[in-house]
Amino acid sequence: MFKYLVLPAVLLGATSVVSADEGQWQPHQLPQLKSELKRIGITIPAEKLADLSKHPMSAMVSLGGCSASFVSPDGLIVTNHHCGYAAIQRNSTPEHNYIVNGFLAKNRAAELPGGPSTLVYVTEKVENVSDRVLKGLPSTLTGRERHELVESRIKALVAECESDKAYRCSVPAFHRGLEYYRIKQLMIRDVRLVYAPSDMIGNFGGDIDNYEWPRQTGDFSFLRAYVGKDGRPADPSPDNVPYKSKDFLVVSAEGLKNGDPILLAGYPGRTSRYKLPSEIRAARDTDFPLKAAGITADLSVIAAATMGNPNYNVRYASVAKSLNNVLKKTQGLMDGFARKDVAAIKDAQDAEFRAWYRGGNGSSAANSKTLLTELDAVIASDMALSQQEFAYNEATHSDLLKSARTLYRLALERQKPDAQREGGYQERDLSFIKARLTRLEQSFVASVDEARWSAALQRYSKLNAKNHPAGVDAALPAAANVAAIYKASELGDTARRLAWIGKDADAFRKSQDAFIVLAVRLQDAALALENQRKEVDGNLERVIPQYMAAVIAWKKSQGKPVYPDANSTLRVTFGTVAPYSPRDGLVKGPFSTVDGILEKASNKEPFTVPAALTQAVKEKRFGVFKDAVLGTVPVNFLSSADTTGGNSGSAVMNKRGELIGLNFDSTYESITKDWYFDTAITRAIHVDIRYMLWVMKEVDHADNLIAEMTVKYPKK
């Protein structure tokens, strides 16, 4: 049986007054929340939810950046349209544009390859390995020495876990380094595109509606996991067979109403709920404005460089979509911080904590003073180094330069024993490096990359010179010489790019390829910056866990929930279907409908609508998917669930654990929830399963997939 080891009581916190809305809970914590689950109406026993081998948790999977779930015994997976976008784009051409027209495989033979970067991870075991990572670390170590020792222990734990090459293992930190868990996941490498509606459905409203409400977006797609005939993961092959998933979700088309309880499970990426006020101000005043300005400029360059060329547009569709999403979120964070002074709220909380801590609740007065002083110092060093790292990323903002740097670093690392190499360059990482370098051929045009890098170098030159990392300026070309570098490089050709894998470092140093030459010149500066990061991280990893242990004890003394920040590991949240009021006199939600699609419809993207959908709505062909209260088909709905990036595609379930929708977004007012959860206005946006099934039946005629799933329809 898969298991979690039990946390110390101090880390569980008091549960009697936990809010149903806030909390991205590790599954093993759910038995501590059984009274709250029962109160809101969840009927699945908390102990069952905590067991990864039992339904429904056994049906949840990660796509390595998105969440998903099995919905048939034959490896059929449902996730968001934007999570399947890379596979859709990979198979699209100007002649067969599946982005615009959608794609449906009527049989298994017609399913399309997702590509080497489309992977499915099935979590099978999670175990607490904190002692093996942290026990006996000498107090005399420098930050870098401490970080490297911790990393070496983590690599040993990963290697031990990956003795069976069918599995991918990781050892992420929880509570900012207070705890470490080893996670073992089956990694399925043959994943195929089964069905994706047109972008007019899957991305209806586009960037204009992104993070907005009301939404009418059918953000869903279907993939299928394939394995070898022995049932084990295998490289893509026509001989592979569908993966026999141990479990899958039953689909419920019975419907929802305002106030109904929901469960949501997935792999949220990153939150910053326990950041200090100084970290919030640095993000608000410096990091986010720089990031937003850089992305805005980059998008403008891409738009100009791809204008009028359908092939270029297809190649950069996924890049632009991702950048636009990050930009909208970054702008939302800035607007949210302007609307509500989260830093001031954190100031008050921090002052209360420090008074409690200095009062002897967490430590002696002398020790508490030392810890808090050290805490402020390491946070300041982290923020200062982040400015240099941002500048370095701007200076090297070229896909071909990144490829050259990766290839040269791989050659350098392969001179070492595998266990001593940097993470990301071990033998276990080689397939991922090849996938990234190969994937470039679907999302790269030399002239576009050249334009992006030239513009980034201009932005870099305007940054404060004190934030230019040492040695970088001397190694970089003048902006006027960028075109010559592209002409003097063969790395734009996939075969020649991949041919550098396996060559020794001396071959790189002798190369005349312009990007290889530049990668070699930049290596010392890059390594110096990396070593500074190790020093800072090692000090953070020494001090922050002490701080977090005290914060957890403080929160427990107040009866507040204690859950770790999101870190791309499996989490469960729960809440209710709920509207919200973004400002006085206005209430939004909790449902949108197909009628709203026609209200927004125009002949201009992103509000174009497929003719078949328009006709079905006008003819009111709603069938069993018609909501009795709304009188039409619901499209999206709001809930109070605690979500963030990475939760895209997460299964939204009813009280019995049946699939009722997919998470795909948050409202604009909710974006700051990554830093501060405001129960009154924080809402997640989900696509209603009834809309998904209606589109499949009435618009795209995906009857084969509906028949493959187990669907519960409303009682007549």
The main pleated sheet reads as: 8 strands, antiparallel
What is the overall number of helices?
A: 26
Main structural class: alpha+beta
Mean pLDDT: 94
Looking at the structure, what is the overall shape? globular
Using only C-alpha atoms, the radius of gyration works out to 25 Å
Q: Quick one: how many beta strands?
A: 23
Percent of sequence in beta strands: 5-15%
Distance between the first and last residues' Cα: 40 Å
* Estimated helix fraction: 40-55%
Could you give a short description of this structure?
This protein has 716 residues and is an alpha+beta fold. The chain has 26 helices and 23 strands. Helix content is 43%, strand content 15%.
Fold and architecture overview:
The relative contact order is 0.17. Strands 1, 2, 3, 4, 5, 10, 11 and 12 form an 8-stranded antiparallel beta sheet that branches. Helices cover 43% and strands 15% of the residues. α7 (143-161) crosses α22 and α14 packs antiparallel against α22 (514-557). It has 26 helices and 23 strands. Among the domains are: 36-252, no CATH class; 277-554, no CATH class.
Features:
15% strand; disordered N terminus; single chain; globular; alpha+beta; 716 residues; 7-stranded antiparallel beta sheet
Topology of this protein?
Blueprint: H1 9-12, H2 34-40, H3 46-49, E1 60-62, E2 67-70, E3 76-79, H4 85-90, H5 98-101, E4 103-104, E5 112-113, E6 120-128, H6 130-134, H7 143-161, E7 167-170, E8 173-174, E9 179-188, E10 190-196, H8 199-202, H9 206-209, E11 221-227, E12 241-242, E13 251-252, E14 261-266, H10 277-306, H11 310-315, H12 317-339, H13 342-361, H14 365-395, H15 399-413, H16 430-439, H17 446-462, H18 472-475, H19 482-487, H20 494-498, H21 505-510, H22 514-557, E15 571-576, E16 580-583, E17 586-588, E18 591-593, H23 594-600, H24 611-618, E19 634-639, E20 651-653, E21 659-666, E22 684-688, H25 689-699, H26 703-708, E23 711-712
Helix pairs in contact: 7-22, 10-12, 10-13, 10-14, 10-17, 13-14, 14-17, 14-22, 15-22
